[in-house]
Structures are given as structure tokens and as C-alpha cells.
């Protein structure tokens, strides 16, 4: 994919996010998709560093108000890594880093090994206000290159789309994590980190906050995705000799690697050449046979449309 200095859109996918942080040097951490918002499901994943919530952004439900958020309270004095969102398409990676960089030394969980790249970035930006930190993040060539390496390859993608150009529904990522005993909501579109109070049981508390957020939407809205940031279960499986878990996780990693390879591959040329071969084969049988083949295809398409109707 051509790298023209912009940030490309990447998918909200556990394999993409896991491979992204590993590309940046983070070790022993992975992402797990959550299919329900309940404490037991979150606890079942083992040590959980935080969750990333993807939702359809609307002015009415986002809660971007200068005086107070719709839920929780602004904490401008919070001692957390918090970057303002200054560019389009990077909110997923920004939410990821909001959890990873705030859990280098968590009080009750195994520490996250950041690796050289992110450790250097965190040290360099220590003490930066959110707006300057957002600019530093957007200008990090290493983070941007890692992010863009997981964008779908397509000759039709516009990697430099303007944020003020309409492009259908807008989706946004935010992070929830426990920092120094407080549950924080870290949203780069907000002016400050949002505190949801003392964090006793992270799973219970974050599930309650997320349910309240989902309830702001009309009944039947399904434009949400939730992922947990957890410790890689393979290490524990090796320690206790859990061959079944280890095999399952290795299969999962293999599937992620294959899917990420497909994302980077541009199939347009292959499909074009394949269609040329099909058409050439039909033409060899004479024009009438080719026309009959086209008409048959049109008829099958029309039947499918009628059945859907």
C-alpha cells in the first residue's frame, strides 16, 4: 500500500489489533472480542487490562460537552496517558495505546512489556498536554506505519480523505481502563479523561458504564463492538501444561496471520485476469454461445433479486 503520510482506516478486529501492538514491540498481550456486556464474560478472559468500545458516533449520544460529560466526571488533573484526537482514522490505534501505555506498571495485574518503540515514545511525551500529545502521536512515523500496514489493500481507497467530507455513518473508538484505582474513560474527542469513580471490580463497573452508554441509543441499534485487552493465555497454558488451550490459541494465531495476509493483498488484478480468461473461453465457442451465457447469468441474477424481494 502506498504510504502518502496519512492514516488509513483499519478494521475493528482482534487479530488486527493484536498483530498491530506486536508490530510495535508489545509482548504477551492480545485482544479478545466480547459478544456480551456482562461481568462474568469479561472475568472469564483472565487478567483484563481494559476494554475498547466501538460505537456509531452521533452528537446526541457522544456526550462531547464542555461543562460535563453525560456520564462520569471530567478529571483534568488525572495522571494518565491521554491524547486528544487530532487526525482522522487513528482513533482505533489511539484507543489501543490508551490502554497499553497506561498499564506498563498496573498495581494488581502483570505489567505490560511495551518494547523499545513505545517506551521511547512514552518517555519522550511524558508531561505533554493532551493536544500536544495528540500531535506527537499523529506525527509518529513508527506508529503510523504499523497502523497503515493493517489497512486493506485497495486501488480505490482514499488514504487522504478530508475529515469534513461526508462518508456515511461515523464510528469511533474509546478506551476504558483502571489507572491507579480509578476507572477512566479515555476518549480523544473529549477535553479531559472521564472518571467513573473508584474502581473496585473492573468487570462489574465497566459493564455498568457500557450498558448505560448503549441505552442512549434507540432500541434495536446494533452498531457496537467491544474488545478486551488481555494477557496472552499461551504463557499460562504452557506453565500449567494445558495442551488444549495452547493448541486452540495457536490455531487462532494462525488464522489471524492468514487473514492479515489477505487484507494486505490486492486481488483486483487477479480477478480481472480471471474474468478475461472466462470471457475468452466463452468467445472461443462462438458469439451465440457467449450471448447465451450472458443471458443465463442475467436470468439467475433476476431470480435472486425476486427471491430477496
Automatic annotation (TrEMBL):
Q: Listed GO cellular component terms?
A: cytoplasm
The active site annotation covers 91, 172
- Keyword list, A-Z: Hydrolase, Protease, Thiol protease, Ubl conjugation pathway
Is Protease among the key words of this record? Answer: yes
Asked whether the keyword Protease is assigned, the reply is: yes
Q: Which BP terms does GO give this entry?
A: protein deubiquitination; ubiquitin-dependent protein catabolic process
Q: Where is this site: Important for enzyme activity?
A: 187
The record lists the membrane-crossing segments as none
* Enzyme Commission number(s) from the entry: 3.4.19.12
- Output this protein's name: Ubiquitin carboxyl-terminal hydrolase
| Source organism of this protein record | Penicillium angulare
